[in-house]
Amino acid sequence: MTRSRAFMSRRAGTVALVAVLGLVAASGVSAAVEPRPIGDVKVLAQVPTPPGFPEGIAVQGNRVYVAGPATSGTIGKPPSRVVAFNTLTGAQVASYKAKGENVLAEHANSSIAFDGNGRLYVLNTQLGMYRLTPSTGKQEPYGDPFPDLPPCLVAPAPCSPAPLPTPPLPNDLAFGATGNAYVTDSLQATIWKVPAGGGTPQIWFQDSRLASEYIGVNGIRLDPARSKVFITVTSDLQGQSFVYTLPLVDKPAAADLAVFHQYGPGDLPDGIAFGASGLLYVAMATPSASGVSILAPKGDETVRLANPVGSPVLPYDSPANIAFNSKGSLLLSNHAFVTGVLDPKAFNVLDVFVDDKASPLEKPALP
């Protein structure tokens, strides 16, 4: 393994995170002293090409699964893939090609999630959502392809609040307890609901505040209490970036969309994950200013993990999504937006020590 140190954006950040986790320890969540300092980063595994441009990441047992390529320009290139690595050694242990893609057209895998039976659900720009059984490699259809919606400016519902005609871009997903999958569509300002058992995606929430000329609504997770859905908007039509919340109800209204945190100019939040501490970890994908933003339960940023001064793309280069191992670390899919084309070795899984563990994800029992 290679090893490097990520610096806090300010020295006070280390003190702040240690203090927050110390308070958590008093409430019963382990904050045991580890030999690694908080914020320490190492490369756990290199993601091969194909797929490159890793996006989705999920942990099951002692394996971490990564999906890609989450990029354009894939016409004529190999099928999308999911690759698995050992969470302790970083050794690649499996690779699964997507079956049924037309590789003569644009094709991509984005995010992934497990159900209670150990099956992996993969978002794919052509196939919609497919289900993979890692032990056998069996792939089967699950959700239908996501609809291409016309702009509401020129067409009746169902339509997209985005101002221009844009194709669907299923980006991230989170399961609810009843088995519904909530999927962000970054180009159509839409959050879809794929009902338990699969089938046709249904519009769950839409709003022009989720729209963008680049990437709009992006990361999604349910809060630990399962009362709210947290989403990121990487950059809206005014160039602003947010973490929003919505109530986990059948049909949220526009007035339900609430700001949890607003980021400053140039910040590009991507995937998110809740720690057992109650902290929200946000992958910051800003090219040449990447890292991890750590938000307290009331929405204020306690710490920003960032690259050292003079090292704009190492170790963080546009991390996309976040999972946890069982050793107190975040596992990040390092998308390598800046460096990946010229140096495919930059496509990797980063292990970032934060002395926290995962708030359990919903893994429903699905038919």
* Total beta strand runs: 26
What is the helix content?
under 10%
Largest sheet: 5 strands, antiparallel
Report the β-strand fraction as a percent range.
Answer: 35-45%
Low-confidence stretches: 1-34
The helix count comes to 1
State Rg: 19 Å
Q: How would you describe the shape? A: globular
Order of helices and strands: EEHEEEEEEEEEEEEEEEEEEEEEEEE
Give the N-to-C terminal Cα separation. 40 Å
Mean pLDDT: 92
User: What is the chains' assembly state?
Assistant: single chain
Structural class by helix and strand composition: mainly beta
- Sheet with most strands: strand arrangement: 1-3-26-25-24
Kindly describe this structure.
This protein is mainly β. Helices cover 4% and strands 39% of the residues. The chain is built from one helix and 26 strands. The strands form six sheets. It has a five-stranded antiparallel sheet with strand order 1-3-26-25-24, with no helix packed on it. Strands 2-23-22-21-20 form a five-stranded antiparallel sheet. Strand 8 (109-114) and strand 9 form a beta hairpin. It is globular and about 55 Å long. The protein starts with a strand and ends in a 14-residue tail after the last strand. Residues 1-34 have low confidence and may be disordered.
